[in-house]
Write a sequence for this structure.
């Protein structure tokens, strides 16, 4: 069975159980500036898990491309990826544990033909009451259900919040206010490979030895974290199931290595050709093959959504992925790195090949410069210390592995102590950058979501006002919102004059003073466009879109002040917004102007 067949079987199976198929969200969400990537199928569905009705009903199914930056350092084993496809089904205040566990098992055993003996499950062991938080009970209901369904007790394992609790930010104490989550029950495929005692005395489903691979997670999303730290029950009980297509495909083939599946076949083959080596020999080189295959596939997926390698946000992640892939290509003995990347990317991802090659050329330069610096240093002082190697890494992206290799070639060794110095510097740097990106994923969302929501609505008002003052040629070219300010790019040939700026600000502030209702309706994109709703990036919208309207009821018939297709969220009345001021403008060249604005 190919991965395409498995995906289709899954979608059909749940359609058969009354689920509506929904279009997946893009990896880079335009309307969610608080996160870098869609990292789980539930992410675009949060409002519906919290109780807003979904236009397609209470049972949904999809396959959502997902990206997890936090897993970059895990890639290299038999089962971790940064970019993967997550099969998902949702019960939004509809069915719950009883049906979900039954269907999950039915899908794996009947549709994919897994023998029940190969399936193990995990269940939440409960969380005792803590200061300010009530107890979350042990999930005996799921355990009972698994037993009824024929999974024997010895294959049902209980774990705590680290393994069997799911929210975007992790266990309950890590969840910011407003975040939703709940206990979960995972299902594992047993490949039957021998246990490696290096990973502990006894093997169990969550053991790291590689015998078990998690193929699905049924999350029972029923809690929301409140400002006071308490978990409270949501108005509805939800099911959020997610299973990695790559891992399920590996289980179907009975081979505990996702890189041997058809999803990676062409990439691995290309890398074999380039390196004149072969994958799957359990040698050190396998790790490099996997890193290259994951990183190139992941960066091509992000780049195909219009992201270029850069020093910022998603662009930076792409840069890191490409550079790391190129470096591992060099570890496989490839000499002409960019030419090699060019051949691989032209064959597999022709549309983004140019940008990928450019980035590898930049990295190749950094590599040869770094090599020269290192060699010179060695010749003059005879030693390289950890601090020097770290600086080289930090300033030129020159990896430690490469420093070590060059030293080895020159018959020198880096002492354990020096490696530790490098690692200490590296860790403290990584902590800093982790904190920054974690803030982006989590804290950012909680602390700033209210401000961001407000500025979202201001953006609509501003867009409408700009069109009224400057003309209908004004259309959105980009938008970015942080808790402090909004940024809006639009088509116009020159910066606004002082008078125009004042007119735009006044027009926006008038609408705010009138405390107009912000309303939305769901419809198809066609209907929305027909009624004159402004829209952006047409191809990225789902089947049904939300149209937000801001209208002054006393202004009589005629078009509303603003009408735009948008995912939201927005404030409910313009009166919630402060006074808007345009802070600064820039001309971005070729007919695009950028303005920054904030509210006071
Ligand atoms: N939200 C859960 C996960 O990402 C299941 O879909 O694993």
């Amino acid at each position: 069975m190919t991965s395409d067949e498995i995906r289709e079987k899954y979608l059909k199976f749940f359609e058969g159980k009354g689920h509506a198929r929904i279009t997946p969200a893009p990896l880079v969400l335009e309307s969610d500036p608080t996160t870098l990537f869609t990292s789980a199928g539930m992410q675009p569905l949060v409002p519906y898990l919290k109780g807003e009705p979904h236009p397609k009903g209470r049972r949904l199914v999809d396959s959502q491309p997902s990206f997890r930056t936090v897993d970059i350092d895990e890639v290299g084993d038999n089962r971790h990826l940064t970019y993967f496809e997550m099969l998902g089904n949702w019960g939004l205040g509809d069915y719950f544990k009883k049906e979900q566990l039954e269907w999950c098992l039915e899908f794996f055993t009947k549709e994919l033909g897994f023998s029940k003996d190969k399936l193990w499950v995990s269940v939440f062991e409960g969380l005792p009451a803590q200061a300010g938080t009530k107890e979350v009970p042990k999930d005996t209901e799921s355990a009972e259900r698994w037993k009824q369904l024929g999974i024997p007790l010895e294959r049902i394992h209980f774990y705590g919040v680290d393994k069997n609790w799911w929210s975007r930010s992790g266990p309950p104490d890590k969840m910011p206010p407003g975040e939703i989550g709940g206990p979960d029950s995972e299902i594992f495929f047993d490949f039957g490979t021998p246990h490696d005692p290096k990973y502990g005395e006894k093997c169990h489903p969550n053991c790291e030895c590689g015998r078990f691979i998690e193929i699905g997670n049924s999350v029972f999303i029923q809690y929301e974290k409140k400002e006071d730290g308490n978990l409270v029950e949501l108005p509805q009980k939800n099911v959020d199931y997610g299973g990695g297509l790559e891992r399920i495909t590996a289980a179907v083939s009975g081979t505990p290595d996702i890189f041997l599946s058809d999803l990676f076949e062409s990439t691995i083959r290309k890398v074999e050709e380039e390196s004149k080596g072969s994958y799957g020999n359990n040698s050190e080189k396998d790790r490099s093959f996997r890193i290259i295959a994951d990183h190139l596939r992941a960066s091509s997926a992000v780049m195909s959504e219009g992201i270029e390698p850069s020093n910022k946000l998603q662009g930076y992640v792409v840069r890191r992925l490409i550079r790391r892939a190129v470096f591992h290509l060099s570890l496989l003995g490839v000499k002409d790195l960019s030419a090699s990347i060019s051949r691989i990317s032209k064959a597999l991802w022709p549309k983004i090949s140019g940008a990928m090659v450019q980035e590898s050329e930049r990295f190749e330069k950094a590599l040869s410069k770094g090599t020269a610096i290192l060699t010179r240093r060695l010749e003059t002082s005879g030693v390289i210390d950890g601090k020097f190697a770290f600086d080289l890494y930090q300033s030129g992206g020159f990896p430690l592995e490469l420093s070590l290799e060059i030293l080895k070639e020159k018959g020198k060794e880096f002492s354990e102590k020096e490696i530790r110095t490098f690692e200490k510097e590296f860790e403290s740097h990584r902590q800093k950058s982790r904190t920054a990106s974690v803030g982006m994923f989590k804290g950012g969302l909680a602390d700033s979501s209210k401000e961001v929501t407000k500025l979202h609505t201001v953006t609509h008002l501003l867009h409408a006002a700009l069109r009224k003052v400057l003309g209908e040629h004004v259309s959105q070219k980009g938008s970015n919102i942080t808790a402090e300010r909004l940024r809006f790019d639009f088509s116009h040939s020159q910066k606004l004059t002082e008078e125009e700026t004042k007119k735009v600000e006044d027009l926006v502030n008038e609408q705010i003073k009138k405390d107009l209702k912000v309303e939305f309706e769901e419809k198809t994109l066609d209907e929305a466009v027909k009624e004159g709703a402004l829209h952006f990036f047409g191809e990225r919208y789902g089947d049904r879109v939300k149209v937000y309207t801001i209208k002054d009821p006393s202004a009589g018939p005629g078009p509303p002040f603003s009408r735009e297709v948008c995912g939201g969220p927005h404030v409910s009345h313009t009166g919630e917004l402060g006074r808007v001021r345009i802070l600064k403008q820039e001309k971005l060249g070729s007919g695009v102007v950028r303005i920054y604005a904030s509210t006071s």
Q: What stands out?
A: The mean pLDDT is 89. The CA atoms of residues 73 and 283 lie 19 Å apart. Residues 40-42, 88, 166, 217, 219, 240-242 surround serine (CB under 6 Å). Residues 3-259 form a domain with the BirA Bifunctional Protein; domain 2 fold (CATH 3.30.930.10).
